[in-house]
Amino acid sequence: MKINKTNAARLLDKAAIPYELIPYEVDPDNLAATHVAEQLGEDIAQVFKTLVLRGDRTGIFVCVVPGDKEVELKAAAKISGNKSAEMIPMKELLPATGYIRGGCSPIGMKKQYPTYIHVSAMQYDYIFVSAGVRGLQIKIAPQALVGFISATPADIAV
User: Fold this and answer.
1) Range(s) of the domain holding residue 76
2) CA atoms of 98 and 108, how far apart (whole Å)
């Protein structure tokens, strides 16, 4: 099966960062990371979801957290220099990032937003993040991802 390279994959190629593209079966009624982990046969703690938030002071920022966790809004706000933060409305996701729900990658958004990745990512040899479309994940070393997208490891999830 031919896998079409996504913009995120092309950016990693250009930077000579090793990764693998891993396809999975999409269930439009279940875009949860837990479903993705089951499809991949991987530990949910290594399948990360990319969430886009807006802070009251700094505007949009990105949190990358394990699939079985939720962003801790107070912690995320504090680390990003905000008093409060909330998820952006779904209708703003595509215009802000260039990605749709269930296919939002921390790599290659329309703008480079401040990005925070849950500190647990750093304990693994590899993690999974969306490749930028539904049905495709990028398997990548967390250090490589953090360096490439200038992410800050932080304790931002519960």
Assistant:
1) 7-154
2) 9
Q: How many CB atoms lie within 10 A of CB 76?
A: 26
CATH number, position 138:
3.90.960.10
Region 131-150 average pLDDT: 97
The answer on pLDDT for 2 being more than 90 is no
- Residues 77-93: tens digit of each pLDDT: 999 999 999 999 999 99
Q: How far apart are CA 122 and CA 146, in angstroms?
A: 9
Q: Is residue 1 part of a domain?
A: no
Taking the whole predicted model, whether its pTM rises above 0.85 is answered as yes
Q: What are the tokens at 76?
A: 């995320």
Nearest-angstrom CA–CA distance, 32 and 27: 9
Name the CA radius of gyration of the chain, rounded. Answer: 14
Q: Are 153 and 20 in contact (CB under 8 A)?
A: no
